Amino acid sequence: MIQITTGDTGLKQALHGVLMALDRPEPALKAMGELVLEFTKQRFELSQDPYGVPWEKNRPSTLAALLGSHPKNRTSKGKVSARGARLLAGRKPLIGKSKSLSKTFRWKVIGQAVEIRSIMKYSAMQQFGGKKADFPHLWGDIPARPFFVDASRGLPSPLEASIVRVLQDAILGFPR
Fold first, then answer.
1. What integer pLDDT is reported at residue 107 of this predicted model?
2. Structure pTM?
């Protein structure tokens, strides 16, 4: 499990004050959880981190392992077959056959906060990267491809704006 807690981003104190003023903060917190969950899933569709930086493309070792997953991915002479070319075309980083990593995020209200996490054991390796020297079972180094917000950088502007709208709706009494 990976857990990231945002630091004091300026929004934190204001958020706490607004939630304390609400009679029932749970609906606003749940709406924020859904927003962050969808924002995180979008990282996989866009192949970029929360701040718009494109993820590093798949390494040759990853593509070679993918080609090796079926004998018809190569011709009898060892070249990439038409089937193999289709398999590689548009292959996005972090999107495997099952697409598990991109689909297994959960959110949970804890007191006056929302926790977003991945239930996949390897999510931290994908978020932060790793070296083969530290993890011998890997076929190569894994570059960091962040999908969660970086606490030290704060919330990306589009996500922050969406959260502010949720809070405005909560203050004005609009259901979400």
1. 94
2. 0.76
